[in-house]
Amino acid sequence: MMKLLEPYLLAFIPIFVAVDVIGTIPLFVSLVGGVSKKQRQRVIIDSITTATILAILFMFVGKWVFGLIGITISDFQVAGGALLFVISVWLLLPGASKGFLSNGNDKDIGVFPLGTPLITGPAVLATTLMMLDTFGLVPTFVSLILNMFIVWITLIKADYIMKLMGQAGTRAFSKIMYILLAAIGIMMIRRGLMGFLIK
Fold first, then answer.
1. Cα–chain-centroid distance for residue 184?
2. If DSSP codes are grouped into helix, strand and coil, which group holds residue 32?
3. Percent of the chain, pLDDT > 90?
């Protein structure tokens, strides 16, 4: 049974780390502050829909696009790993936050910046494609959908989670996620370089 679930678990964890829903909560709360409950629900639905569709589209057409422009999986592993590492290091710097990806002025905040790039950004796209190549379509797809479901529940309960964890707890959890993201980036670079060497 565990052997059967192993690829799902191994695909789920890196995507969960890349999404970093806990790190998104403070920005989400600040963006929807003052809006009605109905508007807030619409923002959540818009953000989850945008993030999920974008990730699924990239999962299915990403390799085709790469083949079209002559990029190999090894190329993407090195580039994607480097990108994950740079993003995670930036977010680990004192005073840095996911807010640097957004100006927060767009009226349709459910699509941008929440749907993309805050929920589904470069880190999620790169990680999803790598999980697809490593564990296959079904485990990656199931892990992605499960992660988006977790994001949806988390955003609905965002105020409660913020009160429970506090600002300091939320920041500490996010920093741990960014360290894991940096490690995943290094792993992807290592696999990409091994792919070059095997050729």
1. 12
2. coil
3. 32
- Cβ neighbours for 177, distance < 8 A, ≥ 6 positions apart: 17, 20, 22, 23
Q: pLDDT tens digits, residue range 59-84?
A: 999 888 888 888 877 887 788 788 87
Compute the CA torsion angle 93, 98, 103, 108 (nearest 10 deg): 180
Long-range contacts of 7-13 (CB under 8 A, 24+ apart): 7/135, 7/136, 7/139, 8/135, 8/139, 8/142, 8/143, 10/134, 10/135, 10/139, 11/131, 11/134, 11/135, 11/139, 11/140, 11/142, 11/143, 12/143, 12/146, 12/147
Burial pattern 48-77, b for ≥16 Cβ within 10 A else e, equals bebbbebbbebbeebbeeeeeeeeebbebb
* Domain layout of the chain by residue ranges: 37-198
What is d(CA 130, CA 110) in angstroms, rounded to the nearest whole number? 26
Q: Which residues contact 121 (CB under 8 A, 6 or more apart)?
A: 101
The one-letter code for the residue type at 89 is: V
Q: Given this model, what pLDDT does residue 107 score? A: 56
Output DSSP code: residue 20.
-
The two three-digit tokens of residue 149, written as one number: 């479901």
